[in-house]
Amino acid sequence: MITFFSTQHALHAPVWEFYRGQRVPCFESPARAQFVHAELLARGHAIRAPEVDSTPLLAQVHAPRYLAFLASAWAEWQGLSGGQATLQPFPSVWPVRSLRSDVEPANFTAKLGLYSMDNGTPLDAGTWAAAKEGADAATSAVDLLAQGQVRSAFCATRPPGHHAGPDFMGGYCFLNNAAVAAQAFLQQGCERVAVLDVDYHHGNGTQSIFYRRSDVLVVSLHGDPQTEYPFYLGHADETGEGPGQGFNLNLPLAAGTPAAAWFDALDLACERITRFGAQALVVSLGLDTYAEDPISTFALQPEDFLRLGQRLARLKIPSVFVLEGGYAAAALGSNAVNVLEGFEQ
Ligand code: Q9C
Ligand code: ZN
């Protein structure tokens, strides 16, 4: 399976985040993609640089004012931080219920809060460039499939994307690469596209982007938001709205769920995708379901990722895999490539 990968991912390298009252090194680090890249090379997989500009698709997935903010955020922050490269911007105020989000404030910190769902998503000088390369990778992968020579591709992208909504960042995500890929499939003439999100965390951004639409089915299995991030979305009763009613399926699983129950939920997800008649599949491939993940509680073992790939291959639909979370960095490459090789068996 061909992989789209850009060394530009490393331009996004914030140093620390808040975790349980402390500053800790960012879990979402450049090392993650380096481990994936190294494993792809070691196991003989072809790697290409993204070559298709995602700008028109990004405008279909994200709000113009959010994209404009992201592209200029670091330059604007330089005015406040005095150009000290080690200072990271964090939001400290948010427009929660009863406050207005229709008016964009002039104040940078107020804008950062308007466009953020948490204070756990630091951005830095290269965030826009790195995230844009990820969206370009998603676009390039769909373009490659549309040429008809191959039926699957992998985007080894970071930062991840599935928590990024129409007009906000969060959960280490800025641009929703999976949504870009789904939108690209529609642009290529598909009428029904499924997004399957197997990251440990609910893909709230992807759900929100497609919640009122019936052309993109969004299915997610994830840690129960009663106890797991993103907390405020991902419950089983969220089934879509208006024309999208019935085209969103959440399969929340209790923290600590064993692998056997996870695969039962995966079967339900796959059955729904088949019943939908999806002509293309986007897999939000988070590997933070791995037993050794430092911020998650599921129990998948390395061989379970082969099994995941095998199960998805049985859907027999053109598939684009997009890397999302997974924070046991040294195991991320082998777990990700196991999915790809399981799919190809
Ligand atoms: N503030 C993905 O897996 N919680 N994102 C971090 C520290 C956020 C994970 C807690 C977890 C987000 C793509
Ligand atoms: Zn995750």
TrEMBL record:
The keyword RNA-binding does not apply. SUPFAM superfamilies: Arginase/deacetylase. Residues 28-341 form the Histone deacetylase domain. Transmembrane segments: none annotated. Its cofactor is Zn(2+). Keywords: Hydrolase, Metal-binding, Zinc. It comes from the Bacteria. PANTHER family: HISTONE DEACETYLASE 8 (PTHR10625:SF17), HISTONE DEACETYLASE HDAC1-RELATED (PTHR10625). Belongs to the histone deacetylase family. This is Acetoin utilization deacetylase AcuC-like enzyme. It comes from Rhodoferax saidenbachensis.
